[in-house]
Amino acid sequence: MEGRKALTWKYYAKKILYYLRQQKILNNLKAFLQQPDDYESYLEGAIYIDQYCNPLSDISLKDIQAQIDSIVELVCKTLRGINSRHPSLAFKAGESSMIMEIELQSQVLDAMNYVLYDQLKFKGNRMDYYNALNLYMHQVLIRRTGIPISMSLLYLTIARQLGVPLEPVNFPSHFLLRWCQGAEGVRKKTHMELEPPGDSSLPLSPSSPLQRATLDIFDYIYIDAFGKGKQLTVKECEYLIGQHVTAALYGVVNVKKVLQRMVGNLLSLGKREGIDQSYQLLRDSLDLYLAMYPDQVQLLLLQARLYFHLGIWPEKSFCLVLKVLDILQHIQTLDPGQHGAVGYLVQHTLEHIERKKEEVGVEVKLRSHEKHRDVCYSIGLIMKHKRYGYNCVIYGWDPTCMMGHEWIRNMNVHSLPHGHHQPFYNVLVEDGSCRYAAQENLEYNVEPQEISHPDVGRYFSEFTGTHYIPNAELEIRYPEDLESVYETVQNIYSAKKEDVE
């Protein structure tokens, strides 16, 4: 249907599609994780994470691989100028081959660095490091930037296609790749995961025969894909993060550990999320982490608290509250020692269910009521914030500020001329946030435009070009507002017409 109509139908259709696609992707991921340890499709695993967090986007392994193949072709073109007889130039698409000679591998990496960082301008995202987009492979390719782990997976995938067997290193604070320089090249199987004898926190010395015999970390060069493919020694790796580390941390990790780190990064970002009340990134990253490690008690507790928090909002699904009980039962089975935390959440969940049973109807706000006489604006109007300049649409109002004392103090509401004793409005802002704005800070937007917010369809059925029309649910709560909107819009445009004349 036309873009401005049927907004509520589209909103809930997207919700359903979001859920159905996520369930399919999660099943695919679980099947993928059952592969043998030597199945090393790091890119495929990363794309499952990307798809799960962006289920409405058109993301596929085939399309991502095609984009990477295009980069490989550019690398081959550059490589041909370095060595026209290089064996990598004879590789066929999809072929799994390895180059044994270090010098030939080095030529591939030189060509890669030129194409990725000089020609295509890929770079580590230092300016916006804590952005979830840096972890989504399709976004890394579109924006040509990412963080160490996503840049490393791109670099590793290209190198392996060209016969250079780089390996992922789960280095603390900065994901790296390692490149074997040993005499036996790629055929050597080292004991990297063993701890050195004695004090394992001490830096290792390449001159120590005992350590050289058991730990071959000095047989590798370490590659920083985030830092334009810079090649590092063991000592330079320590300088990179500013600390000494044990030899075990230079070891290669399997696909599951790489995905664990990617999801762990998303989980950290989800905990910081504060734009809206959905906590979607936190929910998605918890789902992914628990798909890999289903018995993580602390994360299960976090998930239970999160669903409980979401469930206590009247507009949220009652099913979220019931899901808390299922999670808590699982936690109790895994760790009876969590009885106190589990009991607390169970008690409050059951109390909430009882309160829900007692609730009758919804609060109806009539503009004609005496206590609402100071409310000037109506739901559906496109407004502009006088101080911050953002555009927004009103989806609710209160005759006075209904927030707690702490919020009023933190937002410095008392500094406003009318303080908290004035109408406040719930607004959807064009940047995707939801805000609570004082009446004196809002004004009509004389040039109204659509508000690009994911929750617009939750409250409105149509955008007319001048205002939004509330859906049936919102109109029940504000039955007199739509007529007021029509009057307001008519007055605004009559005034504009008089000004022109």
From TrEMBL:
Gene3D superfamilies, alphabetized: Hemimethylated DNA-binding domain
InterPro entries: Hemimethylated_DNA-bd_dom (IPR011722), Hemimethylated_DNA-bd_sf (IPR036623), SirB1_N (IPR032698)
Domain Hemimethylated DNA-binding: 374-471
The protein, known as: F-box only protein 21 isoform X15
Native source organism of the sequence: Equus przewalskii
